[in-house]
Amino acid sequence: MFHEYLPKEIVVGEIYFPPLLIAFGVAYLAANFTMALIGRLGGMKYLYVPALVELSLLVIYTVALSRYVFPA
After folding, report:
1. How far is CA 39 from CA 2, 49, 51, 67, in A?
2. 12, 36, 48, 68: which has the fewest C-beta neighbours closer than 10 Å?
3. Could you give the C-alpha distances from 66 to 7, 12, 44, 55, 56, in angstroms and in order?
4. Residues 20, 64 contacting (CB under 8 angstroms)
5. Any idea of the CA torsion for 33, 34, 40, 42, to the nearest 10 degrees?
6. What is the mean pLDDT of each run of 10 residues along the chain (72 residues)?
7. What is the rounded distance in angstroms from the CA atom of residue 27 to the CA atom of residue 15?
């Protein structure tokens, strides 16, 4: 009845991790990979503030992962 409203944790051994923490970690790796790819392809010269782009990618990836991969 109310199972869809209960929080869901990811269990590793006997440690419970919140899904947003896992989503943030994966999103951080994905954002770093994307920025490295942009830098390797020479796209950094088109970015006005690369740190802001990296932060934006981190937020976008975190929201997408927490919404579609680790739904609460």
Report:
1. 47, 13, 12, 28
2. 48
3. 13, 18, 28, 16, 15
4. no
5. -160
6. 69 87 95 97 94 97 90 68
7. 21
For 1-58, give the DSSP string: --GGGS---EEETTEEE-HHHHHHHHHHHHHHHHHHHHHHTTGGGG-S-HHHHHHHHH
**Token pair for 27:** 């999103």
- Provide the token pair at 26: 């994966």
Would the pTM of this model clear 0.70, i.e. be above it?
A: yes
Structure tokens, 3: 């199972």
